[in-house]
Amino acid sequence: MMLFLENIKLALSAIRSNKMRSILTMLGIIIGIGSVIAIVSIGDTMRSVIAKEYENVGINRVIFYTMAADGVYTNDDMFTQDDIDQVKDAFGDRVPYIDTYCQDRKTLSNGKRQQEQVYVYAVDAGYDQVQPMELLCGRMIDQGDVEAKRHSLVIEKKIAENYFGTVNALGRTMEIIDNDGREEFTVVGVYKEADSVLTAMSGGGMPTVYVPNSIYFTPDSYGWELNCYVDETADINLLRTQMTNYVARMTNRTTDEVICVTAREEMSSIDSVMGILSAAVGAIAAISLLVGGIGIMNIMLVSVTERTREIGIRKALGARTNHILTQFLIESAIISAVGGLIGTLLGIGIVALGGLLIGVAVVVNPMIIVIAVGFSAMVGIFFGIYPARKAAAADPIEALRYE
Questions:
Q1: What is the CA radius of gyration of the chain?
Q2: Of 135, 304, 311, 368, whose CA is between 20 and 30 Å from 105?
Q3: Model-wide pTM > 0.85
């Protein structure tokens, strides 16, 4: 143990006596480890961001639609309110919410000149139970609104502040304008839109307002899809198969003609692609570790040559071959490990700064840090073996004669 500590002291002394050379030797390791840490962390952070986006739109969302013959859609290829009611009755609590995703871009106005473009989403009662919303005041669309076809409106916080100068806009009236004219609605709720990094990075999207689906989706209307939110405790794969078979029978189609898309599958596919890209780019960045390792070998060979006489004196005083070998291996490992530690801090710092600038919670996997620093030390040991063996094999008589 004492010998090991003595070798560490000798290694640190040698590094301190050649500070600039040691720093330049570390650069390859610093750049390599920093790049790997930064790239992997960026990949993990983006995967976390995408997962949060899917949580905002509904991770338990399942969408069904049918394939049209010859690619031409008719009313027979779409769904009615009666179809929705049939599916509700058939699956009950396992599918607590279904609509046809009746959403359109319309103009919202306060009856004066002030107006803006918004998405109007016609929802059924209970939407806020499957897709939780942060209501600041009032309520969400309920069963009474749907059954009575009330012109109730739920708006976003910023709309309330911009139009009325206050979040509490309950009871205020607004108009929704489209090609069919304008209709007056009464504000019954104000919600705060969930934070979206992707929306913020794109400069912000159009706000969404909510109205009862009975206003725009009548018994004579047709929808492109069945937009379902399944119960979290349900077996999603079994339910998907059962619903596909049911929709096929209901629409007189084969199961191959019924398309089912789940949010979980989409998120899993994107996550898989992001993981592969992150690993591939990280592997490319890790090539610089090879360059750093070669740099360590080169400098250690120079160090062995410069310290030939020192090696001879140590051997003459009784140092064994394995003592000299260990000394130079420890020196190369310390150079590499310190470079790896600095590179790790640099990589984390870059990612943290980027996350701070765009307002994203950075994800840094602690295991990646451990692996990075450990791997950098192994690189130092691996590329330090040849110079260390050359030093250990030196003939003490020849070494003492070296000037």
A1: 33
A2: 135
A3: no
Is-contact 201 358, C-beta < 8 A?
yes
Q: Is residue 350 classed exposed, middle or buried when 0-12, 13-18 and 19+ CB atoms within 10 A define those classes?
A: middle
Q: In the structure encoding, which two tokens stand for residue 27, read together?
A: 């650069």
pLDDT of 120 higher than 90? yes
- DSSP assignments along 197-226, one per residue: HHHHHTT----EEEEEHHHH--TT--BS-E
Q: Residues 224, 88: contact at Cβ < 8 Å?
A: no
Give 320's contacts (C-beta < 8 A, 6+ positions apart).
Answer: none
pLDDT of the residue at 11: 67
Strands in 226-229's sheet, in edge-to-edge order, are 97-99, 226-229, 61-66, 258-262
Amino acid at 261: V
Question: How does residue 19 score in pLDDT terms, banded at 50, 70 and 90?
Answer: confident
Rounded distance between C-alpha atoms, residue 245 and residue 254, angstroms: 8
The CA–CA distances, whole Å, from 80 to 90, 182, 224, 281, 330 equal: 16, 25, 9, 48, 75
The distance of Cα 321 from the centroid of its chain, to the nearest Å, equals 52
**pLDDT band (50, 70, 90) for residue 403:** low
For the chain, give the number of residues.
Answer: 403
Residue type, 305: T
Q: Which residue has the tokens 């995408």?
A: 50
- Residue 377 backbone dihedrals phi, psi, to 5 degrees: -65, -40
What is the C-alpha separation between 209 and 156, in angstroms, rounded?
7
- Beta strands in 60-207, from DSSP E residues, in sequence order: 61-66, 97-99, 102-109, 115-123, 134-138, 152-156, 173-178, 181-192
Q: What number is the average pLDDT over the span 374-397?
A: 69
What is the dihedral sign for C-alpha 31, 37, 43, 45? Answer: negative
Distance, CA of 228 to CA of 59 (rounded, Å): 11
Q: Given the structure tokens 């090539």, which residue do they identify?
A: 287
What does the alpha-carbon distance between residue 214 and residue 147 come to, in Å, rounded to a whole number?
7
8 A C-beta contact, residue 333 and residue 14: no
